[in-house]
Amino acid sequence: MKKYRYITWFLSLILASCSLYDDPVDCGDDTIELSLQINSFVKGALLSSETDLGSADEQAIDNLYVFLFPTSGSQTLKKYYVQSSTFTGGSWSSADRKLVLDISSTEAGSREVYVVANCADLKTALDGVSTLVQLQAVMQTSNTPWSAVLKTPILMSGGKSHDFSSNYQLNGIPLVRAVAKIQLNIALSASHQSVPLVDGVARYQYKFINFDKNMYVIKPSVKTDNLVSSSTWNAWTTTGTVTSYTLVGGKVTGLTLTTYLNERDAQGSAIEISLPYMGSGPLPPPEFGDESYTLKLPAKVERNHWYIYDVAI
Fold it and tell me: Which of 16, 250, 282, 310 falls between 20 and 30 A from 100, CA-CA?
């Protein structure tokens, strides 16, 4: 009996020490921790191993939705919407990209963890999610799925399987941007250099062809086309968020176009451009007029890819 009382007293001392020092490594039964990382853009015109972190705006996180999906019948779904440093159920450090959740590692156990970032527009849909299958079906649709409608902060998501009962910390949940990025740099030959406006009409214009309307939180295994194209030609602007041009001696010598777009599994997406033709030839006008060119985008447009095209015309 004396030995039994000694063991009881010793265990009580250990528990008291845990409470006193609150060391989650030794006693970690009060909170769990999740840290996030933002995957770099895969960068290149076609296939490339080059990467780029993107701009500060392209790495920004304004809000989060965190899901801890059950892996056994004894568990219940845990989910949290985060838009400030403190929220119901935990805290968030934007500087460290770290979440602390007020759930014990024992209760958390083995989970499928998914995080969705910059999802305020999808909060109502995410509120209704109770399974991973339902999360995979969440999307938003735009009738103008290109910039400047698609802009920063960018919808991102990522997930990992983890057993919190073995390690209360889940590090490096990868967040992947839900959109791709196209950058078109055009160097113009003398025959295509003109003043940007003639009688108030833009000489340099563009259209988006067969862009997909649907942006899924998580890439579906098969993405069905839901396509739209620009209804009219759009004027190239001097210093816009989508287009810009370089002027030398009052004439346009270079064009740049940058847009976000949704991923697409099938080929057929393109950007059309209309340019003035100022060359000399054997015939008088109307031989000289606008010319149009079509830049075909990759057969498969993938999320978190940055496609760069340097073109001389």
Answer: 16
